[in-house]
């Protein structure tokens, strides 16, 4: 399997194989777990809970979630599965930062591909000369802005060729993907709770 074929779960499992759980503190819903490879801080992380909140922090970032009194119940699954979209709604972001900004990122290649598809649909009945001329203007005025989300969307919405709009509804298209670190941390939370449950069961 190549790197491009690996899923976020594949990448997580590759990096977690030697991690061990340490329960640093536990007093009711006040918990502090640390997960790390022995003698290494590579991709270490902490799980900290207090009533109504769970925080994951460490080498892969920091996210704070709020939903129910015992957040272990919220994230507890038998399988190593995640729900990044729903969980992102429970993130406690800063006063000027939306959860989408810290969990998702702009993907220029998705924007370019969508522009090409919309262009082909809009010009399906055009003659080749007009189509070529229009595409050159799209490349110059729209695709040249693909690396920046705001300017790319604005360029697409404002683009005209011979007074014809091609991308007037482009603001509805999603050109983002989940950030790798966010997905990794989602898996890490579920994995850590599974290790915690297994440790408690073994102790009992």
Textual characterization of the structure:
The structure is a single chain. With about 200 residues, the protein is of the alpha+beta class. It contains 8 helices and 9 strands. It has a 5-stranded antiparallel sheet with strand order 1-2-3-4-5, covered by helices on one side. The chain is elongated and about 75 Å long. The chain starts with 7 loop residues before the first helix and ends with a helix. The mean pLDDT is about 95.
Give the tags.
204 residues, 5-stranded antiparallel beta sheet, alpha+beta, single chain, 20% strand
Low-confidence stretches: none
Structural class, by secondary structure, is: alpha+beta
**SSE topology string:** HEEEEEHHHEHHHEEEH
The major sheet is characterized as:
5 strands, antiparallel
Number of helices: 8
Shape designation: elongated
State the total count of DSSP E strands. 9
**How are the strands ordered across the major sheet?**
1-2-3-4-5
Overall pLDDT: 94
How much of the sequence lies in strands comes to 15-25%
Question: What radius of gyration results from the CA coordinates?
Answer: 23 Å
Question: Which bin fits the share of residues in helices?
Answer: 40-55%
- Distance N terminus to C terminus? 40 Å
């Amino acid at each position: 399997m190549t790197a491009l074929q690996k899923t976020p779960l594949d990448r997580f499992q590759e990096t977690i194989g030697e991690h061990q759980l340490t329960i640093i503190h536990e007093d009711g819903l006040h918990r502090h777990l640390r997960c790390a490879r022995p003698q290494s801080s590579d991709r270490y992380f902490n799980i900290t809970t207090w009533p109504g909140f769970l925080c994951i922090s460490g080498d892969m970032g920091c996210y704070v979630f709020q939903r129910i009194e015992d957040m272990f119940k919220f994230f507890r699954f038998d399988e190593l599965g995640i729900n990044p979209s729903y969980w992102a709604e429970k993130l406690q972001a800063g006063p000027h930062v939306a959860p989408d900004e810290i969990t998702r990122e702009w993907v220029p290649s998705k924007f370019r591909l969508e522009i090409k598809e919309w262009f082909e649909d809009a010009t399906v009945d055009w003659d080749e000369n007009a189509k070529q001329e229009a595409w050159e203007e799209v490349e110059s005025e729209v695709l040249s802005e693909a690396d920046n989300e705001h300017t790319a969307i604005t360029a697409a919405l404002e683009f005209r060729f011979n007074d014809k709009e091609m991308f007037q509804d482009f603001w509805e298209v999603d050109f983002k993907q989940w950030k790798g670190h966010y997905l990794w941390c989602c898996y890490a939370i579920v994995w850590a709770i599974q290790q915690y449950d297994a440790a408690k069961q073994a102790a009992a």
